[in-house]
Amino acid sequence: MRWSVARSAVPSATILLLFVSIGAAGQLPAQASETVAIRGRVISQEGVGLSSVEVAALGTPFAVSTDSAGWFHLRGLQPGLSVLRVRRIGFKGQHIEVRLDRGPTRSVEIMLEAGAYVLPEIKVVAREAKPIEYAWTTKYDDFFRRRRIHSGTFLNAEAVRRPGSSHTADILRLVPGVRALNGPPSSGAELDFSRCRSGHIGVWVDGRKLNWEPAQQQAQGLNLQGGTYDPVAQAKMRRGGLTTLGDVLDRVHPLEIEMMEVYQGIGNIPGEFSDAGCAAIVIWTR
Fold it and tell me: Residue 265 region, left (φ>0) first, then alpha (ψ -120 to 50), else beta?
């Protein structure tokens, strides 16, 4: 009798175990259907949305392209760790590791850097990396590039922001060979370049040359030879509506400036500023 009870108990346990296994197996499809998504925007270094960027989850068949404003929405992913591949022709691709959990859709912002192209038989090697403080932008890359290869005076943010600079011309007192003369209070100081007449100095702001016509001053017969400050000549220029170098520089307030480049002498001026005359002042704003 004891034998028959034990024998009947075995099938019951087996049936119970089988029931639990079937129940657990029945839950798998429901869990597997709970996918997650990620939404975001791909931008350039200038903060502009990039269209037609491929965003793909590696190891899966899921991939999308960004719209005209740079937005994408990648669905169908499994929860957990994923690696996104972000790429577009003309930009350096990125692999981004992201952990996706169930719940609200994750939002991200991804920046792509313009790709570097190597011309045949030409290899470009960076001799010096730019400061980490400017790793977030490419705006000042040309400043650091020219500082390595050109002869000129380069004023960084610390030099530009020195106390007592109420006019942009005041900053140039730090440049050897440049003398700032006291001009009318409303217009700041005039400049005296030892190797260039004041009327032949080009001024650039963020890569754009300012519209300044020194030839017009010379045509009026005003004596600016050697950059000498002449109060009488300055008064005549103002009555005639003409502009001095100090006026041109005052278009940018010192608090708006991040760094400056100054080149004196035709032989020292970089090619991109070749139409400067005999000197060039290059201003980079914040």
Answer: left
pLDDT at 54 over 70: yes
Contact 181, 191 (CB under 8 A): yes
What's the farthest any 2 CA atoms get from each other in the chain?
Answer: 132
> How many angstroms separate the CA atoms of 209 and 191, rounded?
18
Contact 279, 192 (CB under 8 A): no
pLDDT for residue 17: 35
- pLDDT (average), residues 145-153: 87
Domains of the chain: 36-111 (2.60.40.1120), 132-285 (2.170.130.10)
Give the pairing of strands 36-43 and 106-111. parallel
Residues 6+ apart with CB under 8 A from 105: 36, 37, 38, 39, 73
Reported as a single tens digit per residue, the pLDDT across 99-119 is 888 888 888 899 898 875 444
Question: In the beta sheet, which residues pair with residue 281?
Answer: 203, 262
Question: In terms of C-beta density within 10 A (0-12 exposed, 13-18 middle, 19 or more buried), how is residue 99 classed?
Answer: exposed
Cα separation of 49 and 110, whole Å?
Answer: 10
pLDDT of residue 154: 94
